[in-house]
């Protein structure tokens, strides 16, 4: 490829949740500005979920040090912090990784659906603020389509277990007679929906709270559970034995003090499952006697255990990805020829138009019908002469033959500086 596609990422594969959250980018729009200004990337897309912070970029030359430095300054960390956590790949490997993401193969819960929605959101917002351009827009559109097809044909998501079910399973494994316990769910978003569905399916009763009681009520109407007022819950947690927390609050909702107070008035244990990233339960609560705190790290361990049963599907998806990645790569290489092809078509068309006007003047032709016929004739002649060489240029680009593009640029007197984007 004439242009390089890079992927720099920090994910749950290398970093536990307390490390991962340090790399989270708070102000995405300003991060895009910084990356474009300082990292040498001329296009970029940020994908940020509870399990990963990933940057895809396009540039003429890759400078991982510049990218790390920019990312570090955005999140206020020193560059050394990246050394053990960041993974960096380019071109073939970067495209391969994007296909793994869109097909759900790199997800903590294999084949889960959320990631494809999150990737669509990322490219839409990057496109809107023009952080991405022709290369990444094309790449993401194609990778999303391919990923969806791979999911459908392989059935990788079918019978899959969601983060919500994993969390409920974790609670079941750690608590005797969960059915007799008082369960609370804090949050009414996507993850809470998965938890509620799983609790409901397994026949547990539970209460749900969210900042507005109206939202909790609507949630409970479809997902089950009993809505309770936020203020009521936060007055005292002592009545609950199991608390699932899945919010995007930017601070600790469940604090050390609140749980200390709750445990003073309680003669049994409490389990708290924090599914949020960044975490919304202060990790210090784990030091309080009788409290068991679990978060996404423990869910990851559980998923690992479940993986073995699904290894066959993984193999199928890997095989499909290995085939599809070369198709994706060819499409990206083809883009390298587009500025030249567009330029040639444009200049030949303006020559055609000039000569056509000259001829019409000489003929002194006013009959609209005849003018139309002559115009169509000029277009057909140009099209039939130019189409074959242009398609051959595109093909050469797909096959990674930059010398052909170089030669064609000379032949058509194409100005090289245009090729920068
Ligand atoms: N989506 C996934 O695949 C996935 C998987 C695992 C973990 N996670 C993590 O789980 C968490 C929730 O994700 P989600 O996808 O469910 O998000 P979501 O659909 O956007 O829902 C966010 C929830 O957080 C609540 N919230 C936001 N700010 C709050 C605050 N200051 N105080 C109290 N509640 C607040 C919202 O309540 P309001 O209605 O009051 O705004 C809403 O109920 C995130 O930390 C995410 O990283 C997500």
Structural write-up:
With 421 residues, this protein is α/β, with parallel strands linked by helices. The chain has three domains: 4-159 and 310-332, 2-Layer Sandwich (Beta Polymerase, domain 2), CATH 3.30.460; 163-300, 3-Layer(aba) Sandwich (Rossmann fold), CATH 3.40.50.720; 338-420. The protein has 16 helices and ten strands. The protein has helices at residues 17-20, 28-38, 64-75, 92-103, 114-128, 134-154, 163-174, 190-201, 213-223, 230-235, 256-264, 296-307, 311-335, 338-363, 368-398, 402-411; strands spanning 4-11, 43-49, 52-59, 87-90, 183-186, 207-209, 226-227, 242-245, 270-274, 291-295. The strands form two sheets. It has a six-stranded parallel sheet with strand order 7-6-5-8-9-10. Strands 2-3-1-4 form a four-stranded antiparallel sheet, sandwiched between helices. α14 (338-363) runs antiparallel to α15 (368-398). The longest helix has 31 residues, at 368-398. Mean pLDDT is 90; it is low at 417-421. Bound molecules: NADP nicotinamide-adenine-dinucleotide phosphate (NAP).
Task: Compute the average pLDDT.
Answer: 90
Cα-atom radius of gyration: 28 Å
* Major pleated sheet: 6 strands, parallel
Instruction: Domain count, please report it.
Output: 3
Strand order of the largest sheet: 7-6-5-8-9-10
Strand-and-helix sequence, N→C?
Answer: EHHEEHEHHHHEHEHEHEHEEHHHHH
Bound molecules: NADP nicotinamide-adenine-dinucleotide phosphate
